[in-house]
Amino acid sequence: MEEEQKKLKLVSNTQIYLDTRRLLDKVLDVTPNIPRNYKFTIGSRMQDTSVSLIQEFAAAYMTRDKNERIKHIDNFRALFETLKTLIRIAGERKWIKGMGIHAEIIELTDKIGKQMTAWKNSLSK
After folding, report:
1. What domain range includes position 60?
2. CB 60: neighbour CB atoms within 10 A?
3. What is the pLDDT of residues 71-80, one digit of tens each?
4. Could you tell me the CATH number of the domain that includes residue 84?
5. Three-state secondary structure string covering 57-118
6. Residue 20, exposed/middle/buried by CB under 10 A (0-12, 13-18, 19+)?
7. Both ends of the chain: CA-CA distance in Å?
8. Other Cβ atoms closer than 10 A to 59
9. How many domains are there within the chain?
10. What is the mean pLDDT of residues 22-50?
């Protein structure tokens, strides 16, 4: 139990975790602006996917098995692509309101994507 808590503390100090958490916060902030007709399809899916990203990252970070870690990274990347598509749809439909919010979200997704790719590449060597 104590060992897991130490690992979780380490997870929460990594840059990719912090960026993914910021992305979750942004998603939570923008989903109330999504029209009612799409709130439970697009909005809920964005929120659920964002939470799943954190779960997959934590699972990848905490496992010692390289193949298991790669599996979680691949799951993260698949979920991440889904979230980016949903964000793109929300942006194109002007559901993301506020000066520069959409740009901040895109910047975060770019940053997270690069970090995840670098991590996976480091494991593939």
Report:
1. 2-123
2. 23
3. 999 999 999 9
4. 1.20.1440.60
5. HHHHHHCCCHHHHHHHHHHHHHHHHHHHHHHHHHHHCCCCCCCCHHHHHHHHHHHHHHHHHH
6. buried
7. 32
8. 17
9. 1
10. 96
Specify the residue for token string 């697009």.
42
Residue tagged 């520069």 (tokens): 100
Token pair of 66 as six digits? 């390289």
User: What distance in Å separates the CA atoms of residue 106 and residue 23, rounded to the nearest whole number?
Assistant: 9
What size, in residues, is the chain?
Answer: 125
Q: Which long-range contacts (CB under 8 A, 24 or more apart) does 73-77 make?
A: 73/116, 73/119, 73/120, 73/123, 74/120, 76/116, 77/116, 77/120
| pLDDT at residue 98 in the model | 84
Q: What is the pLDDT of residues 50-100, one digit of tens each?
A: 999 999 999 999 998 999 999 999 999 999 999 999 999 999 999 998 879
